[in-house]
Amino acid sequence: MASRITELVLDCTDPERLATFWGEVLGYDVLGRGDDWAEIGPPDKRSTLLFLRNPDRKLQKLRLHIDVTATDREQDAELERLLALGATPVDISQGEVSWHVLADPEGNEFCLLSGRADP
Questions:
Q1: Residue among 36, 22, 46 at smallest CA distance from 105
Q2: pLDDT (tens digit, 9 = 90+) per residue, 44-83?
Q3: What DSSP string runs through 85-99?
Q4: How far apart are CA 87 and CA 36, in angstroms?
Q5: CA-CA distances (angstroms) from residue 15 to 50, 56, 91, 117?
Q6: Reading across the β-sheet that carries 88-89, which strands appear in turn?
Q7: Beta strands 48-53; 37-41: pairing state
Q8: In angstroms, rounded to a whole number, what is the distance separating the alpha carbons of residues 12 and 16?
Q9: pTM of the complete model
Q10: Which of 25, 30, 48, 83 would bridge with 41, disulfide CB 3.0–4.6 Å?
Q11: How far is the C-alpha of 28 from the C-alpha of 79, rounded, in Å?
């Protein structure tokens, strides 16, 4: 038997804001919240995102990032949706590629891949 990832923990200055953003991006529900944390995940709770308050600001590109793929629309339509939710385009000198590099409301980079994922 092997281990599996059950939580991905992100330090942030505003857990509620990031939980709301990522909940909308992924279609996840809020599973719990407190003064300094918020947790979101799918109904089966197999893997969750936990946002913990940390007053330190992000200073450089992350060594770990999230990749997402739309499940029910084409990449261009998903890009527009993510931008409307508060994502911003990021240039990390990626050149001409098939994905979009974006940042969440606190500047954490993530990628929108092309194609569709199984829902």
A1: 22
A2: 888 899 999 998 877 777 678 899 999 989 999 999 999 9
A3: HT-EE--SS--S-SS
A4: 23
A5: 8, 13, 25, 27
A6: 66-68, 109-112, 100-103, 88-89
A7: antiparallel
A8: 10
A9: 0.86
A10: 48
A11: 18
